[in-house]
Amino acid sequence: xxxxxxxxxxxxxxxxxxxxxxxxxxxxxxxxxxxxxxxxxxxxxxxxxxxxxxxxxxxxxxxxxxxxxxxxxxxxxxxxxxxxxxxxxxxxxxxxxxxxxxxxxxxxxxxxxxxxxxxxxxxxxxxxxxxxxxxxxxxxxxxxxxxxxxxxxxxxxxxxxxxxxxxxxxxxxxxxxxxxxxxxxxxxxxxxxxxxxxxxxxxxxxxxxxxxxxxxxxxxxxxxxxxxxxxxxxxxxxxxxxxxxxxxxxxxxxxxxxxxxxxxxx
Length: 266
Ligand SMILES: [Zn+2]
Prior knowledge:
This protein is 58% helix and 7% strand. By secondary structure, it is mainly alpha-helical. It has a 3-stranded mixed beta sheet with strand order 3-5-4, sandwiched between helices. The protein has a two-stranded antiparallel ribbon with strand order 1-2. Helix 2 (42-62) packs across helix 8, helix 9 (196-212) runs parallel beside helix 12 and helix 10 (219-230) runs antiparallel to helix 12. It is built from 12 helices and 5 strands. The protein has one domain. The structure holds zinc ion (ZN). Zinc ion binds next to helix 5 and helix 9.
């Protein structure tokens, strides 16, 4: 590539990066307002998430594990629906999302939310950790905020840049490279950890979401302390994607105090 052509491509890439910067969520008490570079479309990410989610749900159904514990399913759905109802306060367009909440009966101590609002809570995390409603709201709120902030899409976009696998021209269309990056990014929060920055955002905005939905914000530091206490011999799966430490707990404690000093005004 000639120097001139290279300069043109670089300028296009810079312009694209600027125009691709967006704010996924609006203003928040928690102060999560970082601008994000999005080079992959949300439609692409959501379509891939829908496909993966449908496969997981189908398998659970075949195994008789899908929403088979009626009481627990009703409980989790009641809590999640309160969070879903409050979510447009942080991101107005999510009221049009096709949210789904399912409980899989499995001794897995985990929960996640795929792009576009596809939630799974495993029975193991609720039962083994004897979670209260407020603690379930903290976990589900945290996972929902990875989706509201579109962290998977952002991660796929960052990889587009760092791996340089597509040309500027390809970014305007669909490329197989983006599809494979998108599929990798969908594993974030499910089997792969998000970045520390994404985790902090999901912690803070998730706690605000739980508070806006009427749950007790003090449940967050207690919950992650409970998780840490379990991390010795048989650590919960969720800790492999959500490493917990004293700093995280102190951060949540401080935010819980800030939220409780605010008047809720949706
Ligand atoms: Zn997380």
